[in-house]
Fold these 3 entries.
Entry 1:
Amino acid sequence: MTGWIVIGILIFLILCLVLWQYLELRRFTVTEYEIVSPKVRKEHRLMLLADLHGFEYGKDNEKLLAKIREWEPELILLAGDLIVAGQAKTYEKVLKTLKALVKVAPVYYGFGNHESRADRKNSKLSKDFGEYLKKVKNLGVHILRNQSQTEELKGDRLRVSGLELSAEYYEKGKDTPLKKKYVRKQLGAPASEEFQLLLAHNPAYSEDYAAWGADLTLCGHNHGGLVCIPGKGSLLSPQLTFFPKYSGGLYEIEGKRVIVSWGLGTHTFHIRVFNRAELVAVRLVPEKK
């Protein structure tokens, strides 16, 4: 009889875990950060979305969109992997979300490894992705593929750059250093007078982004490591690196700031343990004199 009790307890615990994950994958939190800079004269509200992977919170992402509208951002910044490369159905879901986002504020889209993979030449995905990209552009979204644009907000000028890393920097099981001056070769020199924002999907190279001159870099990619161990941090990166250094949160590197989102969606391994999905809100404020 004791054996059946043990089995019953195990089944109950497994069911509780499954239910917990089912609910956890349908929730997100809003994390707010304040960034102080002498390069702005007025306060600005920015919003970061990363690693959506076609997820929806409510019908057509109504819950997510409601939080974004509530924050009233002046810029919406996308740090890549909005789609799942091999799942064209996620493209349509993302398009619906983007259609709503452009009505809130200007939207800037930097690519992650899923967008880059889908757009590779001779890829079976490239035709579907090409159609997706055309529709994204028609919505008025600013796509930044190793490009920069300046946005003027209340008299302040913000330079937004999007870095698209090549496939070698996403290979699993490898810790590939960024080539010397890679960021500068892709994007040119950073802004000196304007506040320099950088959308760079992979946070593993955060020191390189700061050394290039990004005042604020916005990343994603790690999904919070799937499992977060209290006191230790994120467990595993998508490159299968244990305890990645830049797993989620705000980091300061040589006077520059890097924010790594815990991401809004998942793919392949749909797990979030002590690692709730995250929408990131940023207040950019002037330095007090």
Entry 2:
Amino acid sequence: MIQFKTRTLTIFESALFRTTSGLYTGNGALVLVDPTWLPDEVAAIRHYLDDLTGKQGLHLIFTHSDYDHIIGDGAFPEAKTVASRAFTESADKAEQVRLIREFDEKYYLDRHYPVGYPEIDFVIDEDEQFLAAGEARLSFWLAPGHNPDGILTLIEPDGILFAGDYLSDAEFPFVYHSFRAYRETLVKIDILVRSGRVRVLIPGHGSVCTATEEMQKRLSAAHAYLDTLEDCLLNNKPFPEQQLWSDYKYKAGQQEYHEKNIELFRREFGL
């Protein structure tokens, strides 16, 4: 379904995990971010794109390499692709493709496009690297933490920030890679928000955010979860799970990610 729409921005929301895909069509640019999930949903994005008149060259951005965010790649073979250097050098490529195939086989899904790990045309190596798309400027920041290869994408002059799997209102921080790196990425987002450059924030899962106060609230919520987890584990205290599941309602789908956060924190900090 379409979750959010303006004259230049359309955000599609999957029926699965509230996963978002974004299409930007302003300032002579055509930018697609993380087309996903189900075959019919990817096809709907493809048809939506095909119906646009005066189409420009398409840029396809991958916020990170988790399989749910790369699953639609093959439906857009004409696109110039963008991702981080770590994305292109990932040792996990075959595993992400395996997960796509396993998902489709489990649910009897057929995709009418090839499935594989994306080949990348424009590689992001550093913070504030940018790419011109029509009259728009696409600026990128490296965003490890959730996983090793994330990027933030800011589209200007519209002030649209694609945050990948950060600042969701539906999920607490899922830390697959590094708690230290996750904190550093939150700081980058905070600096961008405080600068006034961000007017629309799109998380990889959950609701689009257009109010600076809400962006700051989500940053505070992410830090609060990480602070509480750290305090409990370093001081051998029980985590207040009742409050966690009061704040986040999808316990059955998210319990394992909280438990994996605990395991990763213990490994990262030698507990």
Entry 3:
Amino acid sequence: MTEFKGIYPAIITPMTSDGGLNEAAFREVIEFNIQAGVHGFWVAGGTGESILLDDEENMRIAEIASDQSRGRINNIMHVGAATTARAARLAEHAAGTGVEAICCVPPFFYRQSDEAIVEHYRIVGAAADLPLFVYNLPQSTGVEVTPDLMQKIQDGVPQLRGLKHSALTFAYVRAFANMGLSCLIGNSMLMLPALTIGATGCVDGPPNMAPELWVEIWNAYTAGDMARAEAAQEKATRVTEMVRAYGLHATVKAVLSERLGIDCGSPRAPGRPLTDAQRSDVLRKAAELGLTRVAVAQPGD
């Protein structure tokens, strides 16, 4: 699979009651999304809390994602880290698990020159030699990858394939598309308008608890049925609004736990779980939006 198009949920990292990785629940969430028709996953990104996990946990996540998916979708594994050496080590490991691509935030905390950012991506890209996606999330990293900086990365990193564009500069979508990059919009409320100006798909957290809603946007849009696509985007937007009102990690985990009949746990500290009252409100609103219990069959069942 060489194209990176469609809906790529930024998948959660389910946790056990003692705060460890819940491998069984992770597989359930992956399978639920695959059966809903997603085209791939953005693994261990912001929604996956990768910055709060140690390297061994992130490596195990890559192994599970690849094993559970079995080549049915594209896994884009996040390998971003505070140092180039760590990011390159995670990239090399990810390539060995069989994921289809890697993604990486730019160096963060200490402000780096454009040349240092390009060199960071060059080393990380070479370590995996897989399609590489830049993770443009300036709200968290303090670094915005503009079209000018992206051109420098494109010139210096042969593995570059595209980016997740989560910056507020929506108009850059068109610029990135004109550079021949696969631009995945990072705001699930803007999936449809982004597609109309050159985005190839969407990556965000809310879709992994309600993948069918965003798959419907994609299917309607690619079929040329804009009225249906607009209706689907409106419904999906209401889901994202609910998530933003209560908090990403806790809300998505609570809804997935209810829909799949499993325990996805709480956000890792310092993240906080929903209060009992908040959880009750979230699950009530999710039910009103049609996000009810589903049955997920494991491969081979």
